Amino acid sequence: SAETTQELHAALLEHAQRLVSRDGASALTMRALAAEAGVSLGLPYKIFADRREIVDEIVSAEVRRFGAAAETLLTRVGTYTVGDNLIWFASIVLNSPAASLAQELHADDQRLESASRVAERTGLSPASFPAVLADYLTAEQRVGRVRDNIDGEAFGFLIAGALHNLLIAGPAWRRPEQRQLEHYLTAAAGAIAKESQGPRTREHNLDPQES
């Protein structure tokens, strides 16, 4: 039935996302997906035309999640610390299965163009990150948590550029360990934030599922 097909589609897509997040983009094959889901090899072919369609579906889902995260980031203005909030957003982006697929998409102009169209249609692309972070920092500035002489647009551009580089650079520019990344973002926030923001709230700063 259509309902069963929809349920299978959602379940297989979830398994595909988990597979990519855990083992990388190269691990995603129709055979590996079937094994991950515990189904026959033929079942994924009944739901998806091929691996490319699965990749497109993952990218679409993650773009929508980025869009939701951008909206949530603005609701966190005035709560936690500026550093915590930057770490929270960065973790959603960098822990996304789309991060593992970024190099594959950038190696194929046609697929990259298709992914860009999906981003425009369904949510937020990495090209929007500078504006998202600039809006967040400006909002923090309005509530008095970022110094008045800080250019939020400039800092948003720099932080977004760093995240984008980590998404697509691959082994040529190794991603720092999580603790190191936290240190960098906390230091950047400390350079622009006013001193009194309250204590860090660790339970909310690293959960990529929170969006």
Would you kindly provide a written description of the structure presented here, covering whatever features stand out?
By secondary structure, the chain is mainly α. The protein has helices spanning 2-23, 30-37, 42-47, 51-75, 82-94, 97-106, 109-122, 129-142, 152-168, 178-192. The longest helix is centred in the N-terminal third of the chain and has 25 residues, at 51-75. Residues 203-211 have low confidence and may be disordered.
**Contiguous runs where pLDDT drops below 50 for at least 5 residues:** 203-211
The helix content is: 55-70%
**How would you characterize the largest beta sheet?**
none
Q: CA-to-CA gap between the ends?
A: 31 Å
Our estimate of the beta-strand percent is: under 5%
Average pLDDT level: 85
Radius of gyration: 19 Å
Question: Given the helix and strand composition, which structural class is it?
Answer: mainly alpha
Order of helix and strand elements from N to C terminus: HHHHHHHHHH
Described by the principal axes of the CA atoms, the overall outline is: elongated
* Number of helical regions: 10
Q: Count the strands?
A: 0
List the helices and strands and how they pair.
Layout: H1 2-23, H2 30-37, H3 42-47, H4 51-75, H5 82-94, H6 97-106, H7 109-122, H8 129-142, H9 152-168, H10 178-192
Q: Quick summary of this structure?
A:
The protein is an all-alpha fold and 211 residues long. It has 10 helices and no strands.
Features:
211 residues; mainly alpha; 68% helix
